[in-house]
Amino acid sequence: MESPNSSGLSRPSSSIPTQPENRVNKANRSTFAAKYNRKMLDWLGKQLAKNPEADIINLLSSTYSAELQEHISSAIAPPISTNGTSDSKPSLPAKDIRSRLNIAASSTIICELSAEVEELFRPYEDLSAGLVSLLSESDVLYESSWAASVMVFRLSENIVVKITGDKTSPVNEHQSLGYLQQHLPAFPAPRPHGVIRHNKHTLLFTSLVPGITLEKMWPQLDKAGKHNISSQLDTLLSTLRSLPHPEDAPLGGVQGGGVKDTRRFVRRSPEQIMDVRQFEDFIFAGSKTASPLYTDILRGLMPASPAKCVFTHGDIRPANIMVSRSEDGTLRVEGIIDWESSGFYPEYWDCVKATNNLTPSDKFDWYHFLPEPISSKQYPLQWLIDRLWDRNLVNS
Length: 396
Known about the structure:
By secondary structure, this protein is α+β, with helices and mostly antiparallel strands.
């Protein structure tokens, strides 16, 4: 499940944002800050239902105060125009991430830009001016449900850009896409075109994968069509998982980006993880509520023989699968997108992550057609143990 914050859980800063003096004191429940707090309150209620004695401070993300302040500030600060001055009227809604970009802020190239992206910036004096101008004329392809946290724009016929407040995931995704391009050049994934950091935001440039998401097409498919798509994904994922884990290389990102576990929040390992045993140490150390006895019993059910490591996408779901249907009705998987959680992980990890959003009341039959390499039937024990352990994790 996509998280509202982009970093792991830890004790937040003690400096809680305060309302500006000129802010009207009358309660306004429709602001983005108010909506953000309601979502956080709802989530906290669910956590306390699981464990009424949980420490609320420890449950909150370390970025909570900063993100709340950003929501408050976006509602009172005048928008910045492309010439660096304040406009009297906002040109974009506050939930649009472009409203938070500032031509006066510095921009830094983190991963080298391709010639195609450099050409887009050629008419502009600097990166920041180019970003603001190009994005102002671009089409929105995706917007996360969490206000202004992640958006994807189409800059040209072939180039798209994903903007997020996360500093590390776009770099990991860029590195993974480069790794795929080098080792599996025929695999249908976006091609990396560079990364820019602009103030608090990171922008990942990639090639456009054509088609529509499987999430949108799924309701239109009959049973044969669903089996067809699942079969194509079987082949693609088997190919992906055939990439050998480099000897003596750490797990996680392909260039040492480390291991992370994305659930409602993201939890990252502070240390390099070199094998599956260490990875499972990391996963089973993720609870502040489970007793050592319960943890030992549950972990003791894991298979004795450690799983091998394979190249893993980390978030296989219909929203991340692009498909098309030709005039004669032929279905085709055009590509798999959103590789921010990818890297080398235990072979069962994609199976566990493919059902992150599955609930006891779910009726989405996609889960009946999960590709065979990542089906829960392939790794039933690891899958069931993770379902039990998930409710105890600080990032769940």
